[in-house]
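Model it.
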Amino acid sequence: MPRFFRILAGVAALVAVTVPLSASGEDGCSDHRISAKAVATNGDIQAFVRCAAEYALEHGTEEARRAFNEDERWKHGPAYVFVDGIAESGEDSMTFVFPPDPSREGSPWGTSIDSFGTDYFFELHRILSVVDSGWIYYAFTNPATGRDEPKSSYVMEVDWDGTRAAIGAGLYANDRPGTCNADEVNAARLSAEPTERNLQELVRCAALEVESEGYFAKSRIERDPRWGDGLTNVFVMDMAGNQLISSSPLRVNGNALHEWGGSGNRPEAFGGRDVVSVAEAFGESYIYYRNFNPVTGRKQSKVGMLKRVVAQGVPVLVGSAYYVPADHSQAGPDCADNLITAGAVRTRRDIQALVQCAAEYIAAHGTEEAYRSFHEDPRWGHREFYVFVRLLEQPGERTRSLVYPPDRSREGVLGTSLHEVSESVFSDYLRDLHRITDIVGSGWVHYYFVNRVTGTIEPKTSYVVEIDWNGRRAAVGAGIYERDLPGTCRREQVNASSLEANPTESGLQEFVRCASAQAESLGFFAGPVFGSDSRWNSGSVNVIGVNAATREVAFGGTQSDWPFEAFVAEAFGGRDVVGIVETFGEAYWYYMQPDQATGRMVPEVAFVKRVLAQGVPLLVGTAYRHSTESGAP
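Modeled.
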């Protein structure tokens, strides 16, 4: 079979380089240990499964089976560890561990064909014949709801008493294109359970509605009780901060949000912070402020979230917010449930875990030992990731640095904002740090800062927690430079030549997400740009776009007599991988392809993301070749 991506590009492979399986940047359980009840993201699932595999290897299968079924570390709600034999059919695949129903263990599962078209066990066998670990997407019964729902699981091949087996765990996400169920994600739930996670799900699902329907979403958002419940409402703004749509019955569409008091009073609410520009640059952001609550009759802390989408070719912001209860804490799971080292940080969620662990370390060991450890122990510092501590005695410019590992000479100095902060962007970062901790005690701050690895000023998101430092108010925090958000896809960092020179899963993901943002912005006009701009087309690296509705190639090189449908049918054994991307928003594809030089079949991994371009669903992606020589990650 001709190599599909290679044919489309008319050149070599889309990424015709060999990448060891360990290139995904995975770390062992000593670097990232997480319990079932703390699992919230795909990154958490990967760490969870790696820890489970290590536990089985260290303690043996009998003890592992007992622990996976009984211990809270491995089983909490819909998060649990499963182990299945690797066979081409569920009729032949032995179930070794299945906590929701242990009676099934020790017997073949039986045929399990889901809505994506093939036996789940056949797909599991196919994937683990290509790579030693990866993602599988399917529909499965959620033990929390009792119904079949889309689930993404991370699986690793292991030896289970001499038998090839897959150990894995999965996540039922509520904020992806095919998973935003109205009975699970709605304003009433956020009102009843005001948490960052519920806020995030509501805003992301509302954003999908606006992205899909554009201005025609107005009637749904304003009339459907799903989007409005008492003081909890969804709104849409333009990039000037004017409200366009709101589920609140007290609408002021065409003006700045009424609770912000218009542009003249915005500095009072947000300390001069241009929250619209922050959300536009970072793709989505949290906002913290105080607002009059008509129920309590007083000003109360409020947490909001804004997400940028392109609707009918126009960028807009979709948002919502909740009042913070008096007994509410913004801190994430404690370090016992989610331990991570700086070297294992990959996502915002990881940063939150690192900071939570740092705050607990200060409380447990004291400031003197914490100061030493934050500077010297690699647990707290690796490349651009490090823990910092600042006093919060005075607003903004009077804040003093206590721990700043990149430059100890800055510690203890009283002065204005750090020179690394780009003052032209959003206002004084230090003032915002003080304001956020004063309002909610912990949260996210978005700003521009010098990346110590690249030496350039880049968008940075930090999580901060208020602490006591020798009887004085202080904030401990850490941050991450993200390179695949709308305002962070910098040409000099995310480009085809960089991916070709250093092909990794994280680099592949960044490249595809940034290409997707370009396709979303330019629509089908993106095709010529991807074909001619060296940023997207360099040597063996090319961007492919497929119309999800017609299953035809929209752009990405020369057309061929090998249609996309034929490639999918043969490479994926009948699996509806297009439907998977449409449901989950983005997905990894694993398949075998012939090497044109040797004729041997070689494993390849693609990352594909769904976007709407001029109202048309597009799948944007690229791929690279894996090498099995170095073994599993």
